[in-house]
Amino acid sequence: MSETATFRLHVNGTERVVEGAWVGESLLYVLRERLGLPGAKNACEQGECGSCSVLLDGTLVCACLVLGASAAEREVVTVEGLPNGDGDLTDVQQAFIDEGAVQCGFCTPGLIVTVHDLLERNPSPSDLELREAISGNLCRCTGYGRILAAAQAVVAERSGSGRSQRETSA
Amino acid sequence: MTVTTDRQERLREGLGHSAKRPDGIPKVRGSFAFSSDLQADGMVWGHILRSPHPHARIRSIDIGPALAVPGVHAVLTADDVPGDKTFGLEHADQPVFAHDVVMHIGEALAAVAADHPDTARRAARAIVVDYEELEPLVDAEAAITAEPIHPDGNVFAELVIRHGDPTAVGEVVVEGTYEVGMQDQAFMGPESGLAVPDGEGGVDLHMSTQWLHVDRDQVANCLGLSHDKVRMTLAGVGGAFGAREDVSMQVHLCLLALHTSRPVKMVFTREESFLGHVHRHPARMHYRHHSLRDGKLVKVEARIVLDGGAYASTSRPVLVNAACFAAGPYDVPNALIEGWAVRTNNPSCGAMRGFGAVQVCFAHEAQMDRLAAALGMDPVELRRRNAMKTGDRLITGQLIAGTAPVAALIDTCAAAPLPAEDPDPDPMALPGGAGRTADRGRVRRGVGFALGFKNLMYSAGFDDYSTARVRLENGVATVTCAAAEVGQGFVTLAQQIVREVLEVDEVVLAPAETASIGSAGSTSASRQTWMSGGAVERAALAVRARLDAGEQEPIEETYEHHHPPTSPLDADGQGDAHVSYIFAAHRAVVDVDLDLGLVRVVEIATSQDVGRVLNPVQVVGQIEGGIAQGVGLAVM
C-alpha cells in the first residue's frame, strides 16, 4: 500500500499499536482485522446500520465512518470493553439473551453499545425516546420487538422495579 | 427431592419452554465468529469485478493492468474455471464468470486476490473490459414473447391450474391488476467466507450459507473436483431469508484459493451484496373474482407474471407456490390460474421469505376487499364466510387433511382490542416522524385485514430430507447435523429436543459441515424445525431405545428423515404437491396523511397457526421479524 501510518489507539482501556496501516483504513477495519476485535460488525460500512457502533471519547459513532488513523490517541470502547462490573455480562447483554432479542446476532453488538450509551445519558427513556435512540441500528431478524423489551427490562431493573418483570414477559 | 428439582430444571430447558440460545452469550459479547470474522495465516483478500451494464456483449477483457498492481496474487476470468462454467440451484445457467455476454448489472466478470482488500478493489478496477452495449429486456410481460435474450429462452416456467368448472360465473365479479416490486432480503451480515487450500488439490470453505451440501456440490462441479475434495463448514450466518440459497462467492473464493495456494477471504460490501444475490420476484398479477351475492366465492381467475431476472435460480418453484396459493386460504370451488416466470436483464430473483406466496397474497387480499366493497359487506365477514377448513381442497385438488383453523384465526385477530387514538400525538408518532410535515388535521386512521397461507417444506415431488446423528457418551449428548443456523434458533431446538428425549443436561452441537454427515436440506421453507428437528428427535429416540434396553454408553444413532412424498402438478395444475401449511391473519392499523401519503403503521395484530410451540420466545421472534419484513415490502 502506498500511504501507510503507524499510530497508537487506546481501546477498551489498553494501548494498542497499529503498524503500517493503509491510511484509508476505517477504524472498523483496524479494530476487526488488525486488533482482533471483531465485535463491531461490518453490515453496511456506510454509516446506515449502526452495527459497528463504538464509543469514541465517550461519543457513540459508527466505526466505519471514522478513519482509523484519526482515532489515534483517543479512547475507543467496543462491545468487548463494556463495563460489566463483577459479572460475565452487562445487564444489557443479559437482557438481550433473556428477552429473545438475539437471533442471527449480527446487529446485536452495535445495539448493545447503543443501548448502553442511551441509558448512560437517559436512565428512564420514554418508549419514543428508546425507539429514536435505536433508530440508527438496523435489525433484519427480530422486528425490534424483543430488542425494545430487553431495553425496557434493563430500565426497569436499574430503576429498582426488578427482574421479575423480565421473567414474566416470555 | 433433589432429583425432582433437577428434573424440573431440565424441563424448563425442554420442549415448550423458552430455552436460551446456546450462541446467545458469544453473540452479545461480540465474540461469535461470523463468516466475515474469519482469518488465517498467509491470508489474501478476494474481490469480484462486476458488470456496470444490464446487457452487453464482451468484446475483450484485459487483466494485464490488474496483474501489474503491486500486491496482486491472482486475476481470474472464465478461462480459469476448470470444471462446469455455470452453476444454479435448479438449472445451471449462471456463469461463474460472464465470458461472452453480461445479462444483468452486477454480473461477475473476474476475480482478484491481493494482499489487502483495497488493493484487490483497485486491481479489479484496473481490468479493462470492452463492452458492446445491447438493448436490455426489462419488461417481464414483454419477455414472454420477446426475442430470446439467452440460448435457453426467456420463459423459466409456465403453468396452468384448472380447478372445477372453468365456465362457472358468479353473480358479482370484480377485477384488478396488482404489482409487487422487487424486495431484497438485506440480511445484516453480508456475504463473506474463507477458502483454505488443503495442499492436495482440495479446499476447505468456511461460509455463511443456507444449505451446505448443495453449495458443496455446485462448487465442486465448477472446480472440476470430486465432491469429497470440497469440504464446507458453516461459518456464523448473519441472517439469510432466502438470499443465501444460491451460490454467490463460493466458487470464486475456492478458485482464488487453489490458484494462489493461500487462504482467501472475501467480504461483500453492502452494494455488492445487493448485486450478488437473488431478490424477491417482482410480480404483475391480473385477477378476476366471482362470487354469489351472499359473498360465497364461485371462481378465482388470475394471470401471474413473475420477473425472474437474468438467471433461473428458483424461479420455477416460486411460480408453483404463487400459483398454488393464488386464491388465498379460502374454499374456492373453481379456479383458472395461469403463471409465467420469465427471464429479463433485471437482477436475478429467487428465494425470499414467503417464496411466491407473498406476491399473490397482496393480490388476493386486495381482491377480497374489492369484492367486499362491491357486495356492501364487511371485509372480515366476507373472509369468514369463505374461510378454508380441514376437509376442503386447494385449487390444486389436494385435500387439506391437517389443521386449517382459518375461521378461528379471523375471529381471534379481529377481536383484538384496537389501539387507542392519541388526540395529541408526539410529533415522532405522526406519519413520517418528527421533522416531516404531516398535518394532524389531515391524518386519518385506516384498518386493514388480510389472510395468508403458505406451504411448509419442499413441494412438488422434491425428495426433501435431513440427516442427524446423536451420540450419548458419559452422560453428554452430541448432535451432528448440517442444518444451517441462520438466526432462527434451530440450535436451541436441537438441544431442547435431545434434552427432552434423553433426559440429559448437556447437549453439545458439533459444527455444521459436509464432511461428517449427510445433507440436512436447506434452511428455508420453514422446514428445519420439522425436518432436522425430526431427524434429531428420531436419532435421539433410537439412542433412547438402546439405552432403555440396557445397553451401555457410548451409543450413537444416525437418522435420515424424509417427509411424506409429494407429487409434481400435472398438466392441469392438479396434484398432491404439498406436505403442510401455515395460516395467518393480520390486522393492520395505519395512520395516513391524506395529502402527503405519509404513513405510520400503528399496530399489526396477528393470529397464526404455528402448530405445537416448541419455544415460545423463538416463535414470537419469527412472527415479529416476519411482520417487520412484510411491513417493509408494503410501505418502503
Strand and helix layout:
The complex is a heterodimer of chains A (170) and B (636).
Chain A: E1 4-11, E2 14-22, H1 27-34, E3 53-56, E4 59-62, E5 75-77, H2 91-98, H3 108-121, H4 127-133, H5 145-158, H6 164-169
Parallel strand pairs in A: 1-5
Antiparallel strand pairs in A: 1-2, 3-4, 3-5
Helix pairs in contact in A: 2-5
Chain B: H1 2-12, H2 24-29, E1 44-50, E2 56-62, H3 64-67, E3 72-76, E4 86-87, E5 94-95, E6 101-102, E7 108-114, H4 117-126, E8 128-133, H5 140-143, E9 155-163, E10 172-180, E11 192-197, E12 203-207, H6 212-223, E13 230-234, H7 250-260, E14 264-267, H8 270-276, E15 283-291, E16 297-307, H9 315-324, E17 334-342, H10 357-375, H11 379-386, H12 406-415, E18 443-456, E19 465-473, E20 476-481, H13 490-502, E21 506-509, H14 528-548, E22 555-562, E23 580-593, E24 599-609, H15 616-635
Parallel strand pairs in B: 1-14, 12-13, 16-17, 20-21
Antiparallel strand pairs in B: 1-7, 2-6, 2-8, 3-7, 4-5, 9-17, 10-15, 11-12, 11-14, 15-16, 18-23, 19-20, 19-22, 23-24
Helix pairs in contact in B: 6-7, 9-10, 11-12, 13-14
How would you characterize this protein structure?
The complex is a heterodimer of chains A (170) and B (636). Helices cover 34% and strands 16% of the residues of chain A. Chain A is α+β, with helices and mostly antiparallel strands. Chain A has two domains: 4-79, Ubiquitin-like (UB roll) (Roll); 91-169, DNA polymerase, domain 1 (Orthogonal Bundle), CATH 1.10.150. Chain A has a five-stranded mixed beta sheet, with helices on both faces. In chain A, strand 3 and strand 4 form a beta hairpin. In chain A, helix 2 (91-98) packs across helix 5. The longest helix of chain A has 14 residues, at 108-121. By secondary structure, chain B is an alpha+beta fold. Chain B has a domain at 2-32 and 465-562: Aldehyde Oxidoreductase, domain 4 (2-Layer Sandwich). Helices cover 26% and strands 27% of the residues of chain B. Chain B has helices at 2-12, 24-29, 64-67, 117-126, 140-143, 212-223, 250-260, 270-276, 315-324, 357-375, 379-386, 406-415, 490-502, 528-548, 616-635; strands spanning 44-50, 56-62, 72-76, 86-87, 94-95, 101-102, 108-114, 128-133, 155-163, 172-180, 192-197, 203-207, 230-234, 264-267, 283-291, 297-307, 334-342, 443-456, 465-473, 476-481, 506-509, 555-562, 580-593, 599-609. Chain B has a seven-stranded mixed beta sheet with strand order 3-7-1-14-11-12-13, with helices on both faces. In chain B, a hairpin with a 5-residue loop joins strand 11 (192-197) and strand 12 (203-207). The longest helix of chain B is centred in the C-terminal third of the chain and has 21 residues, at 528-548. At the A-B interface, helix 1, helix 2, helix 3 and helix 4 of A face helix 2, helix 4 and helix 15 of B.
